[in-house]
Amino acid sequence: MQADITARPMAIALDEATVAFRLAPNRVYTAVEKARLAVEHGEFVAIVGPTGCGKSTLLNVAAGLLKPASGTVNIFDAPLTGLNRDAGYLFQADALFPWKTAIDNVAIGLEIKGTPRADALDRAQGWLTKVGLGAFGNRYPHMLSGGQRKRVGLAQVLIRDPKILLMDEPFGPLDAQTRQIMGNLLLELWNADRKAVLFVTHDLEEAIALADRVVIMSAGPGARIIGNWRVPLPRPRDISEVRLDHEFHALHREIWGVLKDEVMKGYAQSAG
Amino acid sequence: MSKVGLLCLQLLVAVVALALWQLFSTVPVFGHLLLPPFFFSNPIDVGSQIVDWFSTGVIWKHLLITLWESILAFAIGSLGGVLVGFWFARQPLVAAVFDPYVKMANALPRVVLAPIFTLWLGLGIWSKVALGVTLVFFIVFFNVYQGVREVSGTVLANGRMLGMSERQLMRHVYWPSALSWMFSSLHTSVGFAVVGAVVGEYLGSAAGLGYLIQQAEGVFDVAGVFAGMFVLSAFVILIDLGVTHVERRLLVWRPEPVENRG
Lengths: 272, 262
Known about the structure:
Chain A contains eight helices and ten strands. By secondary structure, chain A is α/β, with parallel strands linked by helices. In chain A, the strands form two sheets. In chain A, strands 6-7-8-3-9-10 form a six-stranded mixed sheet, sandwiched between helices. In chain A, strand 1 (10-24) and strand 2 (27-40) form a beta hairpin. The A-B interface holds A 63, 65, 83, 85, 87-89, 91, 93-101, 108-109, 112-113, 140-142, 146, 156-157, 160, 173 and B 152, 154-155, 157-165, 168, 172-173, 176-177, 180, 252-255, 261-262.
């Protein structure tokens, strides 16, 4: 069930984007080659690929943290220059400010925009409550568990109400149960206002359970986008239940058939 | 082991050591003293010297001078270290140019500077402050430099994505990171401020604990030397307790020394 990329206005549109890194004066590593990717407004797109294929690279391009060597990046039909101001970014590693309490970590996004502190704290408290940490506002990040830190991170990003949400394996370091809980929390929050989401993961099951569309990348170097599937599962979904669905299995089998070869290639490359 | 039990054992060590010292310096063994009083004095003389200093109040002036010198050395050295550390960390070219000179200056044993500082700044407190500054500055400088350079790339990228300007990154990311490194070396830098003050006084001054010890040595007053050393130790321990207290308040956000973050 290969989906077409439509011509409607896009939240994110990468066209022929190639990203290369200079490893040594005369050695250039091409991470991503001629990637074509579009995320509609309100659409949840997951990128899946073997380890080290350049999924995060693509995300950083959409965030404006990396500039492609060639190709174009459009955000809401305007070329991206500098950082993507419409996007919130949830990182894989711990990105909270360790010297700020949970509530200060959430409020900072508003404070730097000039929101009065009392007002910012008030709204931050509201967001902490939304992510289930209403009583943990004055804890420092190191006093929170990995899952709780991710919740704070989510609140920190969402309080700014970005039009686009970029997520780089945000639940990667968490244990399986916490991942499901976080996935459901994410869907619940996303359902409220349906932002455009670009979600990077190496976990195909997670991708299908969360997304409207799953994009598969080939193994690097010079990774390309090799597949594009629409996920027909109805919403709202429950991550743990949707996995039992017949359609889920059929789709998983279909995508895995393509992904498996790439994963093997990826392993072979990193081993040799 | 309970807290009280531990304290008893710790006291026991002091009591035994003092008793042995008193014994060997007053009771002859096989016709002669193992610890001749001229070289070793004895605990009672040392104790009465300390009591005498405090009861007459002469010690306060010296303590205050040393404390004041240490505080000034710490404050000026830290300020300089923070400013230069920040500057170098944000301007790699400047850091690269000055690198050999910083290494050279830091390699120099600071004691040799004491006579020059005395020559330049006189016998008053400023020559001691200067000596302390040369010690404190480098510790703070290296830590702040490290702190600014080792800001986690992810935290920095997060700040940028949240919309921070360069100035806001400075205030919310670089500055707290640098300060945390500086505070983690607080014990060392405060200790060095005191070392600078006392060594400076010892090498030439008119007041302070170092001066007191040096004067006693000059007249072979061994009891005075030991008394001075004990007062100095107590003084340093008190300052260190204060630092620990300040540190606890400033670094509440830090995990316990053994870090365990994912």
